[in-house]
Amino acid sequence: MYNGIQIILLILFSLNTLSSQSNTTEDMLSNKEILGLIKQSSSFLHEYKFENSFEISRKALHHAIINKDNYLIARSYNNIAANYQGLAEYDKAIFYFVKGLLYANRTNNDTIKSWLNNNLGNLYGFDKNQFSTGLKYYKKALWHSEKTNDSAQIYVTKLNLAWAYFYIGNFEKGEPYLNFINVQQKKFGSEKTAVALNMLNGVFYSHKNEYNKARSYFVKAIALGNQGKEKQDLSYAYDEYSKLLFKIGDYKKAYENMAAFNKLNNELTDFKKLRKANLEGINLELDEYKRKVNTIETEKELQYQSLKKSRIIVVLFIAALIVLLLLLYTLYKSYRFKQKKNKELTITNKELSVAKENAEVASLQKSQFVSTISHELRTPLYGVVGITNMLLDEHKELANSPHLSSLKFSARYLLSLVNDVLQINKIEENRIVLENMTFNISDEINMIKNSLSFLAKNHDNKINVYIDPAIPEYLIGDKLRLSQILINLVSNALKFTQSGEVKIKVDLVKLEDKECSVKFNIEDNGIGIAKEDQDKIFDTFVQIGRKEIDYQGTGLGLAIVKRLLNLFDSSISLESEAGKGTKFTFVIKFEHDSTKSVEMINNIEVDLGTNQVFKILVVEDNKINQVIIKKIIEKQNSNCIIVNDGFAALEILDKDKFDVILMDINMPIINGFETTRRIREKGINTPVIALTAFNKEEISEEAISAGFDDIINKPFESEALFKSINYLLLRQETLSLN
After folding, report:
1. Which fold has domain 437-602?
2. DSSP 8-state secondary structure symbol assigned to residue 28
3. For 65-83, how does the pLDDT look when each residue is reduced to its tens digit (9 = 90+)?
4. DSSP-based three-state secondary structure for 570
5. pTM of the model
6. Do residues 633 and 618 touch, judged by C-beta distance below 8 A?
7. What's the pLDDT tens digit per position in 351-392?
8. End-to-end CA distance of the chain, in Å?
9. Which fold has domain 190-268?
């Protein structure tokens, strides 16, 4: 490796001989001429002519390095970094600002130090959103400005400090800086700072809820911004003014100003300028590389001169060169072989990568499709189930109507199908996590038996339960997933058995330390499963036994069972013979801890039901859902007001108070998330409950961040809704007392 470096040095020496000849003919520039180039570069920068600014900055930097003037080097790097900041390449901007500050700190010039610290503060604060770092640089900039008593720079830095503090919501610390720049504006301000100053006053008085005063400042900032050439602060003024208008309810003007902000922001990020400027940026980075190479070449030349002094070293060098050439030849042959193999591997990897990407895209599209179609199906099904319940409540004479019963059954059957599809999709995407709950296995199985008694009666079946008394009274595990497994297996057995018996047998396998292994057997004497079909029944959408009788089902029940048991680290076995029945067996390990069980039982929420009359705001755009929700609320002796969209909700909340707000998610104009977010921004702490057809797990994170207190899926039972309302109001009352 050492000999390879020597060869490289020889080549670099030859190249340096040629480059040194060309350098001698290059014209030298004076410091005054370099400063002129820097000012010209700044002028182009202010006009957003990045390619011109880059070109001149590069030339200035080149000559400043030749002249070894640290001040001019720092100024040149400052302009280069500012160009990258204008192009939104913030990491490169930070690199060159810090490099400029390194050279500035080698000088006694506090002005350039102040500029660079101020620029770094702007970049970290407003571009990188790292305000703690940005404020440190601003304070360093202010220290350097005060050291030189540079009033104009002090003014600019304090303006930035006020802006930064306001941006993070710390108006108390930002107010003294705002007071200072308000007093000193006429003396040290400019056209550009006038826009920012008026905008900051608008933000400050908006925070203090002095809306008329804030509005006049924003209008003045926008007028000044439109008169001047600098448009960046004008875009901030449009943005902040639109927020004020939304705050005071002037939505039309708010949208007009937001549109003006978007248009101006697009103009400021002209992609054509970015593309041209990036070419010049690449040239600049090449110059940096060339300077490093020049350094290496200088060191190489010194080494080469040293080598010439000794003939012995030269002889050794030639010998080493011959050895190296032989080694290189060997390495070349090896490299060619590896290159050939790598090429084959690259082609294979590309094919695998494409296949993987296609699979991921297909999976994502499937997930999105399932989520969307389930929401679209749940919404009308909620209407059908709700209206059916209303008809049964209002017209008792229809209770035995076969047509109405068929309608209700069909709607619930479709809803069950949607839930099965969603369930299998969530399991496949690993979005189900088992929970730990204390439960009594006898209570759970008897509850399942009672819930399926109607299905058993329809098929003239009996359900018999046998539970091993040695099983501990309380176990810890996911009882909901266990119930889902048992319901699927037992309901399946009931559907395929006529005038027979379904047995649920639960035995203790092992009780060791805090682990309890329990075996479950679900056995029937129904039609059974043929040998050739037994390997298929756990696949999705597979249904066996439909040849003679139309057994209803989705073909997902056993597929869900198998996947849920995988979550329990368990598997299921099958014994069956056509015409003689079927037996399913599986073992699940539960936790058994008496102390923990008592603690979890004590933490179970009690029924919070009251006879209180509530005043409820319902935000729902679907007319059928409005009717259903209103009936449910009025049935509970509560009052409700219904509005069609989020803007109407915001308007009525400015005038009236409610005990609770029921919010739909998928609404036109403004959705439920944004509406709730704006309700919280108004300082309204009224509990907000999401009533949605979306899956609860899919939206919970966004709902919490928006300010929702609870989520209830449609269709819902009135008991669940009012239990949630009672709990949230009790919690709110408890918090207010504390």
Report:
1. Heat Shock Protein 90 (3.30.565)
2. P
3. 888 899 999 999 998 888 8
4. coil
5. 0.40
6. yes
7. 887 877 777 676 666 666 666 666 566 667 666 776 777 666
8. 74
9. 1.25.40
